[in-house]
Amino acid sequence: MSEMNKSQAEAYWKANLRIVGGSLVVWFLVSYGAGILFADALNSIPVGGTGLGFWFAQQGSIIIFLILIAFYAWRMNKLDREFDVDEQ
Questions:
Q1: What is the tally of structural domains in the chain?
Q2: pLDDT digit string (tens) for 25-84?
Q3: Any idea what DSSP says for residue 33?
Q4: DSSP string, 37-84
Q5: Nearest 10 degrees: Cα torsion 66, 69, 73, 78
């Protein structure tokens, strides 16, 4: 593990914010977009005996959240290795 200078720290923080921002956009689109805002339009697509909008509101958002957690952990570990601030 090495010390980062100010420009490296700023680059690390900006990359971190991009990852968080992208994850929040996906979270918003899935939870509010698919589950609430576009639910009526998505409900015309049948999935497992119910509409896709309902499925996203009940099951899809949970699955996507778990995928987002795994993606965030993977991407942050990769970012930590790139900036040599990983824990190993």
A1: 1
A2: 999 988 888 888 888 999 999 988 899 888 888 888 899 999 999 999 999 999 999 998
A3: I
A4: ITHHHHTTSEETTEEHHHHIIIIIHHHHHHHHHHHHHHHHHHHHHHTT
A5: 90
Domain that holds residue 30: 26-88
Residue 3 lies in a domain: no
Structure pTM? 0.80
What integer pLDDT is reported at residue 31 of this predicted model?
A: 85
Could you tell me the two tokens for 16? Answer: 């971190």
| Structural contact between residues 42 and 51, judged by C-beta atoms closer than 8 angstroms | yes
The residues pairing with 46 across neighbouring beta strands, listed in sequence order, are 51
- What pLDDT was estimated at residue 56? 83
Structural domain includes residue 42: yes
